[in-house]
Amino acid sequence: MLPTYQEFLTRIHTALDARNDVIIENVGELHYQTESEEKIYDYIKISSTPILPTDNILLIRAGIHGDEVAGVLTLMKHIGEIVNYAHTRGVKLIVFPLDNPSGFEGRTRYNIEGDRGDAGNNDFVRYILSDGSITDDLGSQNEFKAWKWSSDPMFAIHLPKETAMIHAQLKKLPLSRIIGVIDLHGDNFINQPYAYHYAYGDVRRYHEIAENIRAVVPILANEYVNSGYLNGPDFVPEIVRDGKIVLDDPDLKSDADGFIVRYEGSLPDLMQRLGAEHAITVETTGVVPEAIGDKVNMIWIKGLIDQIAKNNRNSDRE
Ligand SMILES: [Zn+2]
User: Fold this and answer.
1) What's the gap in Å between 186 CA and the centre of ligand 1?
2) Which residues of 223-239 are buried (b: 16+ CB within 10 A; e: fewer)?
3) Residue 196 sits in a domain of what CATH number?
4) Is 204 helix (H, G, I), strand (E, B) or coil?
5) Residue 192: other Cβ atoms inside 10 A
6) CA of 314 to the centre of ligand 1 (A)
7) pTM score > 0.70 for this model?
8) How many angstroms is it from 230 CA to the middle of ligand 1?
9) How far is the CA of 50 from the centre of ligand 1 (A)?
10) How far is the CA of 21 from the centre of ligand 1 (A)?
11) Looking at the predicted structure, is the pLDDT value of residue 301 above 90?
12) Spacing, Cα 228 to ligand 1 middle (Å)
């Protein structure tokens, strides 16, 4: 049985309330109108305290796609362990642990209003191309004239309420100190147990992390992946050839370690544009058992904390 949002909040508070190195804040309320009632959810943020102007921060987000529960459950069960691991290595945390609470309770990708926005609820970037046209997804081709937050008023784009909320919250953060980002998802389109990941830059630096994941679940290696990542299952930019799905962008194939590089306007894409050195989307398929999903998510979280801690040590020497 999945917890309700209230039960989720209780578990998080039970894990963290007695600590003096982390705070849980209600930073806003999400109001949704259903046919029969208005539903209101507190929107929470978990932060290390204090966060100094020189600190290096890992941002963790889970649960934007409400039916992808793996990351939310991992954070609910392991948030204390994650805080310990980060703080003993000098890394600070900012965590948005359940970005779409009404979708989580209803097990729906979008919120209780069914609002997918203009381009899905994981909508953070617009790219302006050299011919002046505007897109939310460059595929694997990192070519554009300019980029902007999708919430920039110049676009007048409709964002679902939970997406507008995290845009507003992000703009209050010390963005230049966010060195790493992990966005925890769960692929509900592939019916085999797999893990794979979206990343940017030199993905070879994550080889050891991929090897650790491979030890607990198969890696979706050398495969075309289009799991409605951004635009949902009704958006299918793919063709079928000899019974196999072939994307129209042949570079959108995972590598031997399961990495896909795709500039698709997601939260990690925004953060890498803002200068984060590490920006990862973690995907485990929905048929992966919960305990295995936890292991994969924790390998990524601890692996990125280790990488950020290594940066800390290097800069200490300079
Ligand atoms: Zn997702």
Assistant:
1) 6
2) bbbbbbbbbbeeeeeee
3) 3.40.630.10
4) helix
5) 9
6) 34
7) yes
8) 7
9) 31
10) 30
11) yes
12) 8
pLDDT at 121: 96
| Residue 1 in tokens | 């049985």
Alpha-carbon radius of gyration of the chain: 19
Going from the C-alpha of 166 to that of each of 121, 158, 200, the distances in angstroms are 11, 14, 22
End-to-end C-alpha distance for the chain, whole angstroms: 51
Q: H helices of the chain, where?
A: 5-16, 70-88, 101-106, 161-170, 207-214, 267-273, 290-317
pLDDT digits (tens, 9 = 90+) for 171-223: 999 999 999 999 999 998 888 999 999 999 999 999 999 999 999 999 999 88
Domain count, the chain: 1
Q: Give the number of other Cβ atoms within 10 Å of residue 315's Cβ.
A: 10
> How far does residue 8's CA lie from ligand 1's centre (Å)?
19
Using alpha carbons, select from 30, 20, 25, 18 the residue that is nearest to residue 64: 30
The rounded Å distance from CA 213 to ligand 1 centre is 19
Ligand 1: distance of its center to the CA of 101 in Å?
Answer: 14
Task: Tell how far the Cα of 131 is from the centroid of ligand 1, in angstroms.
Answer: 31
The C-alpha atoms of residue 121 and residue 65 are separated, in whole angstroms, by 8
Domain extent for 153: 5-317
123-149 pLDDT tens trace: 999 999 999 999 999 988 899 999 999
